[in-house]
Design a protein that fits this description.
This protein is of the alpha/beta class and 163 residues long. The protein has 4 helices and 5 strands.
Amino acid sequence: MNVFEMAVAGPVGAQHAAPLHDTYYLLDLPGYGYSRASRADRAAFRGLITHVLNRPLLAGVLWLLDIRREPSDDDRAMQELFAARQTPVLAALTKSDTLARTARARREGELRSALELENDQAIVTSAREKEGIAELREAIGALIRKPPRGPGLAPGVGLPRDY
């Protein structure tokens, strides 16, 4: 199954998991920003996301951000959470086909700056035009090839040798 061709139907707020590799799963967590969810549901989403981020074997986060929108308060809170936990982040800036090329580059720079992302942490994408999809696949592959970070493991406990 190609993760970028996977279509999982389900209600907003549901979480979905899909095998990405023998050892890895892509966990699709509910949206928190522009979804039509109650304040209580969005707080529950944040609790679920915090729980997932605390997992010691988390390879990283693929963060989907609409290139047309300014980062919301929730986006900024997520960025702070990622930074505090030193979570590897790869941001896919989606819907780039809706902007002219010069506007795409400008918005990419603005979002990287606003969310404190390095150049290699943000990829401009368009599902419609297939822009950035190959680069995104490669970046996800690189992210999961890195061993998970050690925080969260008990002192003196390491990862298995074959990891």
